[in-house]
Amino acid sequence: MSEQDKKPLDGLRDRIDQLDTSILKLISERAEVAKQVATVKQASGGDAVFYRPEREAQVLRKIMDKNDGPLDDEEMARLFREIMSACLALEQPVRVAFLGPEGTFTQQAALKHFGKSAVTVPMAAIDEVFREVEAGAMQYGVVPVENSSEGVVNHTLDSFVNSSLQICGEVVLRIHHHLMCAEQTRRDKITRVYSHAQSLAQCRKWLDSHWPMVEKVAVTSNAEAARRVKSEWNSAAIAGDMAMELYGLEKIAEKIEDEPDNSTRFLIIGNQQVPSSGTSNNKGADKTSIVVSMRNKPGSLHRLLAPFHCYDIDLTRIETRPSRSGVWNYVFFIDFTGHRDDPKVQYVLREVESFASELKILGSYPKGVL
Ligand SMILES: O=C(O)C(=O)C[C@]1(C(=O)O)C=C[C@@H](O)C=C1
């Protein structure tokens, strides 16, 4: 580089150094304020609740609203997500149970939602995530609930029926599957592909056209698939970036999912009821999830849905699950927009309660921001 070229570059780097110093000071100042917030929360008595999903949603939405570029809104929100995560860790480190093992998409979702300062702890099964949070060993849990191509995760829905936990948030993750193998693998000799059954299903067409002869072996998770191929020479795994990095694997083919917008929705479960994320100048964007049991009578479903229509409440999902007891003939899981404190939502819930065998509010929570 010539002396002439160096001059403008030096000047720009000096400017970046000055800006970094200002950003550093401001982040430290913000962190000091977060410590004061923690003191106020502690002083209010009882069990202080440090993690506030509604406030985090407000902060991120505001940042996205105010951002004028050149970084795009999501990129900017991701930076603030990490700043808030570090501030929360100063107040109190959060421990989050997720459906393991290490490297699953659920761990990726947990880190996307809570940021990298959260401590994520793998659990062997969905019920274990629920149990650990119920027992207070973990403050929050993250479980998958539905995939855009494979549908609902029944195990998660069933776990809610007998649980006292509340849904505190949701996070949607774009799922990209890659075909990967270990360094020592003979790529021309691959005879087997491991993955979770759902991931094999999500990549079925791609596998049929590119690797029709390989044996497809379903294992308990994508991360487990990645762990297995690490020590084998004739097999490959379908998994995500996190598992690939964790086990030091090499990519054979990228983004092999059949549906280009394949995504999975995860729920954050905890012991707190989350207030509305609305503010005086922003109505907020919350969702509520309920489970309703109905007797097996003609017209029950129509009766259940009518109040939502009547009060113009947007249903975002409805699932039916077989009942496990005589009383619970039909069990409907319903998600809709609005918060349990909104008057319109309260009317609807009162009406549903008047004819349902049982109504349980699983939680009101901010719509996923990132
Ligand atoms: O506003 C609060 O209650 C805070 O604790 C501060 C803060 C933040 O850094 O903005 C940190 C953690 C909470 O989950 C929400 C927001």
UniProtKB/TrEMBL annotation:
Q: Which reaction does it catalyse?
A: chorismate = prephenate; prephenate + H(+) = 3-phenylpyruvate + CO2 + H2O
Q: Which residues form the Prephenate dehydratase domain?
A: 95-271
CDD domains reported for this sequence: ACT_CM-PDT, PBP2_PDT_1
Q: What does this protein do?
A: Catalyzes the Claisen rearrangement of chorismate to prephenate and the decarboxylation/dehydration of prephenate to phenylpyruvate.
UniProt keyword Membrane, yes or no: no
Q: Which residues form the ACT domain?
A: 289-366
Q: In which pathway does it act?
A: Metabolic intermediate biosynthesis; prephenate biosynthesis; prephenate from chorismate: step 1/1; Amino-acid biosynthesis; L-phenylalanine biosynthesis; phenylpyruvate from prephenate: step 1/1
> What's this protein's name?
Bifunctional chorismate mutase/prephenate dehydratase
Enumerate the Gene3D superfamilies for this protein.
3.30.70.260, Chorismate mutase, Periplasmic binding protein-like II
Please provide the record's keywords in A-Z order: Amino-acid biosynthesis, Aromatic amino acid biosynthesis, Cytoplasm, Isomerase, Lyase, Multifunctional enzyme, Phenylalanine biosynthesis
Q: Domain of life of the organism in this record?
A: Bacteria
Q: What is its EC number?
A: 4.2.1.51, 5.4.99.5
| GO MF term list | prephenate dehydratase activity
Q: Name one Pfam family in it.
A: ACT
ATP-binding: present as a keyword of the record?
no
Question: Where, subcellularly, is it found?
Answer: Cytoplasm
Q: What is the species of this protein?
A: Parendozoicomonas callyspongiae
Q: Where is the Chorismate mutase domain?
A: 3-95
